[in-house]
Structures are given as structure tokens and as C-alpha cells.
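Example record used in the benchmark description.
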Amino acid sequence: MNNEKIISILNQKLTLEKIYATGDSNHIKIIAVGDIFKGMNQVKRQQIIYSPLINMIIEKKIHAVSITTYTIEEWKKNKKNLS
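Model output (C-alpha cells):
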């Protein structure tokens, strides 16, 4: 499963400001940014990202996923720390 396909699937199913996917089919790292995550705990945020990808995970097209999520405000604050 390539990263562009994962980004495309997530963009089709979710309203996100930004989405990044890196890695290979053994381990994908996803960073998702959007106000869709406002007021949600980390578990709920991850469930939202997993949902559109679940069939690929079950079919073992994706082995492991690491997910980091931010609201737009959180991203603006944390992006400075990532530089």
C-alpha cells in the first residue's frame, strides 16, 4: 500500500486540513490535522483515522500504523516545535 493511496482514502472519507503518510506497508506513520478532532480524546481521534483504513489492515495490506492527530490550533502550536 503506497502512501499516496492512504492519503487519498483519508481525504475522501474525512474532512482534514492536512494529512501526511510516510513509511512502507510494514509501518505507516500518519499525521492528520483537522478541526474534526476538536473535543475528542486520543483514542477517539485514532478510531476516526483507523475507520477508513480498517479493510486494508484486516487484509494485511498495512501491517502497523502510528497515528498522530492535531486540531488546526494544536498543529499551529506544535508545528513550531517540529522545525
